[in-house]
């Protein structure tokens, strides 16, 4: 599941999610959602925990060269 889809499904703002995973701010989450940045390993793990495994590391990488 893409992070943007999870956030909509969960009704969370970027700011709320940033606080939940310990990210610096909502701008960081916006970059993850736009796929302009890949989370560092510790934040990748925090995202997995916060989403109860719905968003996995592979979800941040395009399939088939997209």
Structure in words:
The protein is an all-alpha fold. The protein has a single domain (3-65), classed as 434 Repressor (Amino-terminal Domain) (Orthogonal Bundle). Helices cover 52% and strands 0% of the residues. The protein has four helices and no strands. α2 (14-21) packs across α3 (26-33). The radius of gyration is 11 Å and the shape is globular. It starts with a helix and ends in a 16-residue tail after the last helix. The mean pLDDT is 93.
Tally of strands: 0
CATH architecture: Orthogonal Bundle
Question: N- to C-terminal separation?
Answer: 16 Å
CATH class: Mainly Alpha
Using the CA coordinates, give the radius of gyration. Answer: 11 Å
- Average pLDDT over all residues: 93
Percent range for helical residues? 40-55%
- Residues in β-strands, percent: under 5%
Helix and strand content put the structural class at mainly alpha
CATH fold label:
434 Repressor (Amino-terminal Domain)
Topology overview:
Layout: H1 3-10, H2 14-21, H3 26-33, H4 41-50
Helix pairs in contact: 2-3
């Amino acid at each position: 599941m893409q992070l943007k889809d999870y956030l909509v499904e969960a009704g969370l703002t970027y700011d709320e999610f940033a606080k939940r995973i310990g990210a610096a701010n909502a701008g960081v989450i916006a970059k993850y959602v736009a796929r302009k940045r890949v989370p560092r390993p510790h934040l990748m793990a925090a995202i997995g925990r916060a989403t109860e495994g719905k968003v996995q590391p592979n979800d941040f990488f395009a399939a088939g060269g997209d």
